[in-house]
Structures are given as C-alpha cells and as structure tokens.
Known about the structure:
Keywords: Hydrolase, Metal-binding, Zinc
Organism: gut metagenome
Distance between the termini: 27 Å
Largest sheet: 6 strands, mixed
CATH topology: Cytidine Deaminase, domain 2
Bound molecules: tetrahydrodeoxyuridine
CATH superfamily: Cytidine Deaminase, domain 2
GO molecular function: cytidine deaminase activity; identical protein binding; zinc ion binding
Family: Belongs to the cytidine and deoxycytidylate deaminase family.
Structural class: alpha+beta
Number of helices: 3
Protein name: Cytidine deaminase
Strand content: 15-25%
Helix content: 25-40%
Number of strands: 6
Shape: globular
Radius of gyration: 16 Å
Number of domains: 1
Oligomer: single chain
Order of helices and strands: EHEEHEHEE
CATH architecture: 3-Layer(aba) Sandwich
Amino acid sequence: MKNLDIQINVKIYAFEELSIADRELIEAARQATFRSYAPYSHFSVGAAARLANGVVVSGCNQENAAYPSGLCAERTTLFYANAQYPDQPVCTLAIAARNEKGEFLAQPIPPCGACRQVMLETQTRYRKPLRVLLYGTENIYELQHVGLLLPLSFDASAMK
Ligand code: THU
C-alpha cells in the first residue's frame, strides 16, 4: 500500500488586502445575492466572473418548486458568460452568499461539487487558469486555479 497525499494552497486575504479589480468583482457577487431567487432555501448566492476582455458578468441561484430544476449561482454565471462571450476565457470567479437572516456569511462560501466540475470545464475549455475568490466577511479565500478545488478531477483527458 502507498499513500498519495495531496496538498492544496489557499491564500487567505482580508478584503482590504485585495486589488481594486478583485474588490469590484466581489462587490458584484455580493450585489448579485440580492437578485437571487431562493424562496425554498432562503440561501442567496451570487457570483461574478471577470472575462479576459474585462467584462464582468454576474448571476445568482435560481430555485424551482421541483428542486433539482434550480441552478446554483456559479453555474448560472458561468453558463451565461460562456453563452454570451464564447471566445472569452474566464479569468476570475468571485462567489458570495447570504444566510436566511440575510447576513453575508462570515466564512468563505464553499462551492458545491457540481459547480466545481463546471468551473473545471470552463478552465479546461479556455486553457487558462480560472482563479476563484470565495468571499466571507471575515476572510476571503483565493484559489489560483480550479484544480485546487477539485483534486483527482475528471476532465476530457481522462477519456483518452
Ligand atoms: N447554492 C449555490 O448557488 N451555490 C453553491 O455552490 C451552493 C448552493 C444554492 C443552491 C440552492 O439554491 C441554495 O444555494 C441552497 O443549496
């Protein structure tokens, strides 16, 4: 038996330590939480993507009475970005969330597994690292590429 130990690097920032561009992206993700449609979970998630051409697009979770028909903020945002700007790599994705009391989470919001897989596809598609900023009011996590969120990931290369 052998062990494979996988380490990931997460950079932790206070909001004031971030670049202006990253602060703006986080603010766009925060604002997107107010457009969330979450009548079932009352958990409002927002995401904002900065594309290589500088455009910022944002999205939020969209729930449905038939629960699995809804979609997370990250996928809403990435699919919109890819649909509107299919030739533009996504450089950075910021994610923010508010709880049922309407408060922003103190700790960084961890994206669900399905969203991590979609982030990986976006990164693979454009052959460019997709940075991820997970917002919390107390600190912010930066993952410099999606592989850090999804070790031992499945992508098209696994099918060769
Ligand atoms: N949600 C997201 O939008 N992103 C995530 O990464 C985690 C969960 C949404 C889905 C659902 O509308 C609500 O949060 C509760 O799961």
